[in-house]
């Protein structure tokens, strides 16, 4: 239950950061939320997800789940969506890791923060719907066994 409250708090902070034009803070929160939601998808899929595993690895693992056309993951995590997430991650990395070595306009930060906000919104929905679909699938399989 604590994780739910923490998640809700971060979503409020994200909204406030965007409203106040604190785009670096927003990007930081978006990254953390994406990493958490991807880990959740992997765990609910029965895949291992290491504590020190980075977001790129998690994106690749979820993308691999989505390539299996017969899997539920294919419906929720299509290749184009996962590719857009990886593209966002690369843009974020370029900004964060070279913050002082580049000319960076507020508009550039805003663009990436807005893209991240959209990805987070979609990922939250997709992860929740995917988990519920897995639960329904498991319940249906259990009924058939009885």
Mean pLDDT: 92
Determine the N-to-C terminus distance: 32 Å
**Segments where pLDDT lies below 50 for 5+ residues?**
none
- Beta strand count: 0
Measured by DSSP, the beta-strand proportion falls in under 5%
Structural class: mainly alpha
For the biggest sheet, the summary is: none
- Which bin fits the share of residues in helices? over 70%
Oligomerization: single chain
Overall 3D geometry?
elongated
Radius of gyration from CA coordinates: 17 Å
| Secondary structure tally, helices | 6
- SSE succession: HHHHHH
Structure at a glance:
This protein has 146 residues and is an all-alpha fold.
Please, could you describe this protein's structure?
- The structure is a single chain.
- This protein has 146 residues and is mainly α.
- Helix content is 80%, strand content 0%.
- Helix 2 (23-44) packs parallel to helix 6 (106-145).
- The model has no long low-confidence stretch (mean pLDDT 92).
List its salient traits.
elongated; mainly alpha; 146 residues; single chain
Describe the protein's topology:
Elements: H1 2-19, H2 23-44, H3 55-67, H4 72-76, H5 79-97, H6 106-145
């Amino acid at each position: 239950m604590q994780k739910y409250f923490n998640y809700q708090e971060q979503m409020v902070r994200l909204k406030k950061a965007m409203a106040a034009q604190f785009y670096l803070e927003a990007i930081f929160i978006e990254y953390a939320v994406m990493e958490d939601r991807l880990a959740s998808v992997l765990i609910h899929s029965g895949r291992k997800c290491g504590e020190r595993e980075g977001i790129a690895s998690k994106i690749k693992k979820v993308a691999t789940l989505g390539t299996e056309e017969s899997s539920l993951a294919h419906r929720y995590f299509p290749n184009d969506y996962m590719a857009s997430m990886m593209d966002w991650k690369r843009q974020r990395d370029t900004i964060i890791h070279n913050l002082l070595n580049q000319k960076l306009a507020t508009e550039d930060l805003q663009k990436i923060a807005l893209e991240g906000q959209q990805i987070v919104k979609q990922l939250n929905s997709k992860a929740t719907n995917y988990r519920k679909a897995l639960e329904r699938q498991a319940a249906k399989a259990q009924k058939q066994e009885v």
